[in-house]
Amino acid sequence: MTDFFGTWVFDASTAEYGDQPVPRRGVYALWPSGDDIAFAIGWTDAEDETHQVAFALRPDGMVHTLPTGQQVRCALEDGALVSEVVHQGATVAWASRRLVDGGEAMRVVQRTDGIETAALYRRERVKQVICYRRDLQMRKGKIAAQCAHASISVITRRGGVQGLELRATLTPEMALWTQWRQAKIVLSVEDEEALVRVHEEARARGLPTSLIRDAGLTEFGGVPTLTTVSVGPALSSEIDAITGPQGLVATKLA
Questions:
Q1: How many Cβ atoms sit within 10 Å of the Cβ of residue 162?
Q2: What is the pTM (predicted TM-score) of this model?
Q3: Rounded CA separation 56/60 (Å)
Q4: 73-123: per-residue pLDDT in tens?
Q5: Which among 44, 158, 184, 234 could disulfide-bond with 168, CB atoms 3.0 to 4.6 Å apart, if both were Cys?
Q6: Domains along the sequence of the chain with CATH
Q7: Are 132 and 228 in contact (CB under 8 A)?
């Protein structure tokens, strides 16, 4: 069961959609949530509209009744993770997820209202990259504090506090990352120009990003100063296009 956990990216070249419009992009995230499996699915349709849905299923083979009155069942059957939604005795949705290519791809077959589609989703990694400025020569503790600011603010800035609850709208990649294996990579960039470019390139690509300006109370002579930037949680390949070895902005491992 654990082999299914992680992030999977839609491969449009494998789509078997018949006369149905093929999505432009899709991400499927699965992770453990107590006795359940949590799902977060996001896609961009053929008309460039974005959609997201999240739910949890208990893979025990038992029928569970939802508050809507629908019944749902999920089980591992012959190596496939299968789920079914039944309403008033009729199956309204069915899906099968099977690992192929040595576990590096997942074939997803879905049937809704009598329409069946199928495609491969390729395994992808999710991470967050945090960059700090080398030219500031911050002490190690200051670097750690600024990187922590950048890491958490990319989440908190997406929502707001209501009473004692923080509510934020997350992408499927962000939801997976917050609940399972929070991979973080810390890199350094040469100067403020490079730091800002990382932020701007991430924004241009629609990636979660947060640029941190320190108040300058303990360093920088009281001058507010840009110190760090975070990119992600997002797909590793999308972040690497900016900060990776062949990325647009030169970086060094911290």
A1: 8
A2: 0.90
A3: 12
A4: 999 999 999 999 988 888 889 999 999 999 999 999 999 988 999 999 999
A5: 158
A6: 2-124 (2.40.128.20), 126-253 (3.40.1490.10)
A7: yes
Lookup: tokens for 17: 């959609």
Output 206-210 pairs: Cβ under 8 A, ≥24 positions apart: 207/231, 207/232, 207/234, 207/238, 207/239, 207/242, 208/154, 208/158, 208/171, 208/174, 208/232, 208/233, 208/234, 209/154, 210/150, 210/153, 210/154, 210/157
- Distance, in Å, from the CA atom of 18 to the CA atom of 33, rounded to the nearest integer, reads 35
DSSP state at residue 65: E
Tokens of 158: 């997406």
Rg (CA), the chain: 21
Strand pairing of 252-253 and 184-189? antiparallel
